Amino acid sequence: MNTKDKILLAMYKLIARHGYEKTSIAMICEEVKIKKPSVYYYFDSKEEIFLALIDEVNDYYNYLNIEKSFKKQTFKKDLIREGHKIIDDYIKDGKLIYVIAEFYIQANRIERVKEKIKRLENSSRDLIKRVLNHGIKINALPRDFDVVLNSRILGLTIDAIGFSFSHDIDAMTKIWETSVNRMFLELERQKK
């Protein structure tokens, strides 16, 4: 891992532990075992490190190509499975929930963070839209399926799960499964 990535990882850990406001460049230096000039070689400020961290999370959504793994016969199961993977990531990491919460807190204070959060939300919604559009393409979903509405519903479900600090994996998975099942129940109702 290069120094820049170590700085980002340190910021991630420290924000999860202390929040953005209480995290300092000195704390990052201590965590990475470098001096301040090394941090400033890569980043102009603590805010720049924070913004780069948001970009890292955003890049994750942009590079995922999970929709290609979805099959017509198993589309619903595939969608539930991918939701379970996201929930597992939240649980395994433990810090992710706190870091994302801090993104939203700082979005109310720092305009550039707000702009990046909007892009992050769009990236996660776009991922869901790509999956649902793939469902239409492979005939797992009807041509008139409301991709925009359903991607928002599923996206908000993931967001709500992401902000659950209880770490109750059973409740989280049940919420996700219920949202997906309701979407498919509505499709069945519309067919009649």
Describe this structure in words.
By secondary structure, this protein is mainly alpha-helical. It has 9 helices and no strands. The protein starts with a helix and ends with a helix. The longest helix has 27 residues, at 111-137.
Write a concise synopsis of the structure shown:
By secondary structure, the protein is mainly α.
Map the helices and strands.
Blueprint: H1 3-18, H2 25-32, H3 36-42, H4 46-63, H5 75-93, H6 96-107, H7 111-137, H8 147-162, H9 169-191
Helix pairs in contact: 1-2, 1-4, 1-6, 4-7, 5-9, 6-7, 7-8, 8-9
Gap between N and C termini: 56 Å
The whole-angstrom Rg is 19 Å
Approximate shape:
elongated
What is the number of E strands?
0
Poorly predicted sequence stretches spanning 5 or more consecutive residues: none
Counting H and I runs of at least 4 residues, what is the number of helices? 9
The pLDDT mean sits at 89
- Main beta sheet strand tally, sense and closure: none
Give the amount of beta strand, in percent: under 5%
Task: Determine the fraction of residues in helical runs and give it as a percent range.
Answer: over 70%
The helix/strand order is HHHHHHHHH
